[in-house]
């Protein structure tokens, strides 16, 4: 996609958590991928780097790709310069433009049980379930749904249609493509129990929408697939049942219990 069709202030972004407790949790798990995404205080940092590189490639941003060539240790050193207090957790928002200029916004975030950052199959942690609505309108897949960018008006609109007014509310809305398939959440990746377990012996009990449905290639999604928590599977919005259990995840909060609410 050519940069000249993009708004002048357009950026690719990735949001993640800084938490000094994360490396301790990483030591208790067995990494299934290399590099291990849980060895730094930056949650799933190698996956965030990969996500940003893929977005820069999609938009043809050579200068941005040059900046993103640094390895994880170098990127940790870069991000460390923005952390006001390394004993506290922070929410980071990394923004990159077509010139390769990188901004890092840092804001306080609440402390959480570090086990939230492992997949549900790795912990028995129980938490309060978020209410999960289904958007009443349809969203056409595009580069702006596959990659996380500052073009987020359609996510905001979906949240408003569901009456969500704050990012601190334990509420989410699922986006749906024109084929009626669940794409993703407005700020999370969703996971659902497999509908058809026939021939599924040995397969994970959970599925997440495939990227072909149009959703975001999220970092926690990457982690959940790599750790074997889930596989990909198309989910029709009409197949979801009121009150059914699901899981949600993102790069700041980790994994969260959810419950479908049909209205």
From TrEMBL:
TM spans (from-to): none
GO molecular function: catalytic activity
InterPro entries for this protein: Aminotrans_IV, Aminotransferase-like, BCAT-like_C, BCAT-like_N
Gene3D superfamilies assigned to the protein according to its UniProt record, in alphabetical order: 3.30.470.10, D-amino Acid Aminotransferase, subunit A, domain 2
Protein name, as recorded: Aminodeoxychorismate lyase
Lineage, highest ranks first: Eukaryota, Fungi, Dikarya, Ascomycota, Pezizomycotina
């Amino acid at each position: 996609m050519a940069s000249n069709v993009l708004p002048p202030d357009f950026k690719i972004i990735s949001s993640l958590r800084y938490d000094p407790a994360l490396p301790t949790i990483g030591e208790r798990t067995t990494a299934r991928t290399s590099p291990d995404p849980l060895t730094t205080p930056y949650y799933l940092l190698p996956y965030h780097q990969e996500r940003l590189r893929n977005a820069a490639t999609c938009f043809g941003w050579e200068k941005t790709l040059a900046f993103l060539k640094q390895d994880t240790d170098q990127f940790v050193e870069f991000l460390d310069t923005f952390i006001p207090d390394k004993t506290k957790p922070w929410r980071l928002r990394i923004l990159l433009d077509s010139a390769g200029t990188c901004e890092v916004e840092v804001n306080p975030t609440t402390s959480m049980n570090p086990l939230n950052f492992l997949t549900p199959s790795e912990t028995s942690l129980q938490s309060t379930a978020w209410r999960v609505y289904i958007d009443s309108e349809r969203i056409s897949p595009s580069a702006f749904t596959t990659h996380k960018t500052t073009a987020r008006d359609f996510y905001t609109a979906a949240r408003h249609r569901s009456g969500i007014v704050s990012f601190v509310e334990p509420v989410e809305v699922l986006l749906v493509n024109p084929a009626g398939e669940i794409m993703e959440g407005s700020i999370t990746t969703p996971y659902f129990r497999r509908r058809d377990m026939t021939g599924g012996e040995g397969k994970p009990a959970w599925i997440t929408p495939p990227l072909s449905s149009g959703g975001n290639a999220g970092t926690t999604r990457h982690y959940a697939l790599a750790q074997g928590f889930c596989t990909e599977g198309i989910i029709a919005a009409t197949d979801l049942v009121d009150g059914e259990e699901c899981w949600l995840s993102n790069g700041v909060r980790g994994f969260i219990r959810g419950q479908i609410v049909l209205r």
